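Long-time lurker. I teach an intro course on protein structure, and each term I like to show students one example going from raw sequence to a predicted 3D structure in token notation. This year I'd like something fresh instead of my usual example. Would anyone be willing to generate the tokens for the chain below so I can use it in lecture? Attribution to the forum is fine with me.
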Amino acid sequence: MATVVLTAVGGLIGGPFGASLGGLVGNAIDHQLLFRQGPREGARLTDLRVQTSSYGTTIPKLFGTIRVAGCVIWATDLVEHRATESGGKGQPSTSSYSYAASFAVALSTRPILAVGRIWADGQLLRGAAGDFKIRTGFRLHTGREDQPVDPLIAAIEGTAQAPAHRGTAYVVFEDLELASFGNRIPQLSFEVIADAAPVPAGAVVEAVSGVAADGLDTPLAGFSAQEATRTTLDALCAATGAWVHSDGAELRLQAGPGPARAMSDGGAGADARPAGRGVRAIAAADGAPRRLSIGYYDPARDYQAGVQQASRPGMGMRETRIDLPAVLDAGSAKAMAAGALARTDLARERRTLTLGWDALALAPGARITIQDAPGQWRVDRWSLENMVVKLECVPIAEAPLAIAASAGRAVAAPDEQRGSTILLPFELPPLDDVPATTPNIVVAAAGSASGWRRAALLASLDGGASWTPAGETAYPATLGTVTLPPAPARAAVVDQASVAEIALARPDMALANADMAALDAGANLAMLGDELLQFGRAESLGGGRWRLSQLWRGRRGTEPAIGTQRPGDPFVLVTRDTLQPLDLRAPIGAAVQLLAQGATDPIDPAPAHALATGISLLPPSPVHLRATRSGDETQLRWVRRSRIGWTWRDGVDLPLGEENERYQVEISGAGQTSISTTGTPGMVLSAADRATPLIVRVRQIGTHGLSAPAELSLPSLGDDR
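-- Reply from a regular --
Happy to contribute to a lecture. Here you go:
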């Protein structure tokens, strides 16, 4: 609105020039007053409640080692954290929001030994070494009958209202950071170690149902038994061929051949006279499944669901599937499927025996042998008619042999340890043609292990008395320390004589060579101590050690630092995507301290330090300082440099990069020092000025301070030859 009004008014008063001036003023008013941008708000949740599990959700009994999802049994609301970052000069600030939650997840209604890996939305939240990939507190309650109340639950709910969940194994997450999961509690699954070794199927049966098991020795690496006992028993019986048998005293589950009673197939009538041989019947082949598959959990696939199949030749189209909540290797599952299919095929043959009263004690499930019939048989049905016992029997299959099988290809979630954060903050000269207005403090960061990605930063400008959020680190940087510093050299030529040796933070970090064209384009730029240099050749010495040669020294005005490096000084490969600028508004001379808050960083780490030297704000020292004598006068001349425009593409002159061009000239001699300023790159000394030996120091006066000096020693005029 102000733009329109003042353009019209300016045109009436001053014509076209007045209209332009009025438009500029009005535009400034619109942006600063009428249409000024307010702070930007990042994505924010409107409901801080979390979804928990429903009542009635089954919590299994776990055996061996198995992966389970668990059931959320307690949770807090999400905790919101707000961070505001300045948008820079003339830009609005931005507020971002992050969330954390605390919750408990029940795993087993049977005590367990430990929890191994944890997955969140399919990615590893906790690795095999017990390292968490995201910052969180974590506690395990193993399900003992004497386990105490969790301290966090007691603190929030009150001691009197907080159950100990005795007999239930569960875990508690405290302040799990949710930014990586869309600010919600992720879908979690846990590698639970309930027993130290594989568990026989019979032991599972006895623990779940109290029924004794005979011959059920199939080893299960892991098993998840639901509360419905019959469901568990049905799955085990179908997969292993086990059956229920009662001898009148107790109920047993048995499988495979075992102690058997020998029976004659002669048959008997009510008067104990022979009634003919027993009846043998074989069902049609297409009545049995032609293909049978076993669903199971495969440890080679991070316990994800696997399927193994067995098929038989011949007629039939039927297929059947057995889903077994057990952990098996592929070969064992394949053998189990083959055994189950063989049993269904054998079960097509049935023999019906007609016996006398002496067979009354043979209940369904009993093992028998039949005269002139191979193998052992199981009594499937028993009936008493007209004082004659009829037994309907099916063959008992031998245990299947091991079969080679493949689990198939699986893409496992990467399990890389993150280690602790390595921070290297330093002041960096401008890498583009935009002059800085505050010291350009940047931070390079990496992890002591290859799985590190990023960390939050805290900064202090008062010696650690107070700390403020400073954003996050950038992508992992290539960094390390100096082991052999390069020798002093000139910055104007390629240093072919010196070498530098460095030790990178990890052996998997690497450097590369660069030709002259790549170096001219800015490749292989590195901060070595306080010197910015480039290297053309990088030679690996093994173990993360590298030798750098073909050096371009003192880049971007850092030539005063040439030759000042010492062993242990930092090395950072300078790339834009691995350096995070810090918006600290630190004055020149300020000491900056930084702390990293990564998922695996110590609670009380030692801070990293940087000094705002002003190298990004102050102009470089003038060069080519020389004195030319003309009669009784001496002409001093020098060449200015700029903190921007280093590529010098036009070959004419460099941009000034300062508010104006001024120099401070300091002349010392005969115990006296004089200081003067000039706006041109030169000064005239009279014969009287040259009466004694002089030391001349010339500094460019920048917007934010003085450059380093260019220095020249002059003898007295009488000694000047």
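Some talking points for your students: The longest strand covers residues 94-108. Helices lie at 2-34, 151-157, 201-209, 229-240, 330-346, 516-520.
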